[in-house]
Structure formats: structure tokens, C-alpha cells
Amino acid sequence: MKTIRLIYLGMVAVGIAAYLTATPVHLSGQQNIAVPIDADDIGGVVTSANGPEAGVWVIAETTDLPTKMAKIVVTDDQGRYVLPDLPKANYDVWVRGYGLVDSPKVKSAPGKIVNLKAVVAPTPAAAAEYYPAIYWLSMLKIPDKSEFPGTGPKGNGMPEKLKSQGQWLAGIKTLGCMSCHQLGNHATRTIPKELGHFNSSLEAWQRRVLSGQASEIMLRNLNDLEPQRALALFADWTDRIAAGELPASKPSRPQGVERNVVITLWDWATPKAYLHDEIATDKRNPTVNANGLIYGSPEDSTDFVPILDPVGNKASEMKVPVRDPNTPDTMFIATTDTLMLAPSPYWGTERIWQSQATVHNPMFDEKGRVWVTTRIRPPANPAFCKKGSDHPSAKLFPLERAGRHVGVYDPKAKKFTLIDTCFSTHHLVFAEDVNNTLWLSSGGAASGVVG
Q1: What residues does 450 pair with on adjacent strands?
Q2: What is the CATH number of domain 2-123?
Q3: So what's the pLDDT on residue 331?
Q4: I want to staple 315 with a disulfide (CB 3.0 to 4.6 A). Which of 36, 76, 207, 268 is the partner?
């Protein structure tokens, strides 16, 4: 699992660094092009059979550091690139871009000029393999606006609760499938052979959504859309792709300031965990924790929070504690073990998600402490939260259960403090006020706590 850290560096800013070399590169029919670099850069020019390649990505990747790292930049109008501020290591360097296929990887190291030969895609299908997932997802056919609002099983079959085409799309996108999956990537637009043999792609999709750690969640979301109709549309989508149909439009290459982006990626978790989100600083004051550790939240997948040192290129992890050892595990919180309805084509029957804390939504405060919403005990609330308590909050709004609570980690003391809440927490954010008020959401409701 990787994260992306964006650093905006103009090519001009890179060019005015202390020069190690400014090697001129001769291109047929053009003037010599100088690519200035210093001792921790790799630079050069990208060309193909079509000449200089502008707006393509140059990627440098290494496994020599404590954690796998890659840096990516974009070429300018003349095909020039500079990969800046590389840690000392050996790198594989190659070119990727729209209209191309990946070039052969070239071994190199900082302080060297590396001129790269891009490979033009031999066919439109080969080029399309590099399109963003959303271009492939755009091929999915969706119910017509005239089918909404739904009239139920005795009418057009569309659920009556679906009032518009936009609501149906929301169930595919933000509120449903795309909450976990990058629909349109190779893994979703094709049917893996490991899934098994099926007489039709519809059968394959019916089996696919039963797979893995959260199959009940997938079925719940599909049920909101009318599952047979939705699965038939997905089956049609993969059938047309398997038959060779390609996205109707082609992505354009980066232009303008898009070419000034430098992307650094680190491999800083495990293959069995997923990253819900991360935090690097206090959002109200970005100077907090400058060049410090980055903390992730793995939510239901594990209790071990991934931590990245972006300066030392090191990855580590820290277990988030629970107050009550009887706190249920995410995958066994139900009374029956039914969350995995069928084996995963990748992990089989192994339960790769194991989390009591289900850490969510980390945030830095003004003191450099990391706050998280986290489960610290079983769901049943203590007496002070319930009806009959003399606690002011319980008198106003008694609550029987809370699924997630609050924790705060002090990096200096290396200590976790767990905070019980009567209400379930989900997201947290610090207000820009004199009290640094901490606000916590609870399924759409909010409760304020002074930090």
C-alpha cells in the first residue's frame, strides 16, 4: 500500500540549483538542449520515434532504502525532465505516458544524465491500458433518467426509494462501490481466472460480490440499487471490454502547472491492510510537525497504524490499544461469523482484516498530538450514558451504545490516552477558535469537545 506526497517544484526552480552538470542533448533538426542537474538529481531528455515527448511521466523507483520509494516528474515541451532530491540509492528509471507503453527500465543513480527512449503504443488497445480508471468506468451503461423514481417490483423493478438517476449513480460512486474500489482499473474491468469458471459474466459477477472480507457490505450496497439490474450492467460492461471495446475518449497529457508536480510515493503498510486516510500536520497550521512523521489510519483492516518517516524513507507501525480486552474484533462483531460469504480470488478464506480499534480519521492538534476516532471498548455503554443517569448529557439524550470512541497519541511521550464517549464517533476536526474545540461527527450528528 502506498501513499502520495505532493511537492510542487517548478522546472525553473529545479534548474537554478547548484549545477553539477548541464549536458547538451542533440536532437535531430533542433538546437542542443541543456538539462542542468545537481548531485542528488537524475535528468535528461525523453524522445521517441515521434521526437521529443512532452507531458509524459518519468519514474525513478528504488528498493535500496528502508522502504520502497518512487519519484515521478513530468517532461516539458522539449521532453526534458529532472528528478530532484533523490536519496542516495540505485534506481530503475522509465517512461510512462498517454499514447505510450512503458519503456524498458534503465539502471541509474543520482548525479547522472539519463536520456530515455519512449515506446509509442503499437495499438489503441495497448495505449488504453494506461488510461485512468474513470475512462474505463465511463463505459458502464446506467439506467435512463426515465426509470426514476422507481416504481418497485410491481412496476419497473427499480426500488421506489431511488428517486433519481443521480441517486443511483451515488450508490455506484461515493456512497457505494467506489468507497472501496477503483472501478475501471484492470482488476475490476476484467474477471480474474482465479474466481473460477462460469457460464456467463453475469454468473461471474454474482459470485464476485460474495468474495472476501466485506461481501455483506457489497451486497447491502447492491441491494439499494436493485442487485440483478446492477450486476447485469456490470456484466455487460466487462463483456464489451473483453470483446475489445475501448473508452470513447482519450485522456490528454499534463499541461501547464500540471507539469510542475513532483510526486513521491512510499510503500509503508502491508499488502493485507488498507489505508483509509492519513495526516501530516495540523490543517489549521501547516508548520506543525514540519518534516515529521506521517500517520495513517487502517480502519477495519488492522490495529497497527502505519507510520512513515518521509525524510529517512522509513516505514514503521504502532499498535493502537483498547481499554477493554473484550472489545470485539471488526470481523467478528456480529453474533455470527457471516461477513465472508465466499473466498477471495486473491486471499482465499484467510481473514486478512483483524481490528479491535478500527482507527479512523487522524488529526494533528496545535501541540503536535495525533487524535483519532477509535474503538476502546465493547459497544454497550456504561451506566453514566444511559437513561436514569444524572449526567447532564444523559438526561438530555441518553444512549445505550457507542461503536467508536476517541484516542490521542503524544509522539513526544509515546503514549496513547483513550477517551470514552457515550456517542459513536466517525470523523473529527479542530475548530479555528480560541479553545481549539474538537468536533466529532456521529452518523451525521455532531458533538463538541474542548481539546
Answers
A1: 437
A2: 2.60.40.1120
A3: 59
A4: 268
Domain segments of the chain as ranges: 2-123, 133-242, 270-450
What is the sign, positive or negative, of the torsion defined by CA atoms of 220, 427, 169, 353? negative
pLDDT of the residue at 443: 57
The one-letter amino acid code at 118 reads A
Backbone angles phi, psi at 171, to 5 degrees: -70, -25
The whole model's pTM is what?
A: 0.86
Residue 57 backbone dihedrals phi, psi, to 5 degrees: -90, 140
Taking the C-alpha atoms of residue 146 and residue 153, their distance in angstroms, rounded to an integer, is 16
CA 361 to chain centre: 14
Helix (H, G, I), strand (E, B) or coil at 214: coil
Considering only CA atoms, which of 450, 165, 205 is closest in space to residue 342?
205
pLDDT at 16: 28
Query: Rounded CA gap, 295 and 221, in Å?
Result: 30
Ranges of residues in the chain whose predicted pLDDT is under 70: 1-33, 331-339, 443-451
Bridge partners for 279 per DSSP? 295
pLDDT for 339 = 65
- Residues in Cβ contact with 332 at an 8 Å cutoff, skipping those fewer than 6 apart: none
Geometric angle at alpha carbon 92, from 86 and 94, rounded to 5°: 100
- Angstrom distance (rounded) from CA 106 to CA 397: 64
Calculate the CA dihedral of residues 233, 234, 236, 240 and round it to 10 degrees: 140
Spell 51-81 as b/e; 16+ CB within 10 A means b: ebbbbbbbbbbbeebebbbbbbbbbbebbbb
Question: What amino acid occupies position 146?
Answer: S
Residues 424, 427: Cα–Cα separation, whole Å:
10
pLDDT computed for residue 418 by the predictor: 98
From residue 85, alpha-carbon distances to 19, 82, 105, 115, 254 in Å are: 13, 10, 20, 18, 22
The pLDDT score that the predictor gives to residue 32 is 56
pLDDT at residue 330, rounded to an integer: 72
Q: How far is CA 176 from CA 1, 18, 167, in A?
A: 21, 50, 11
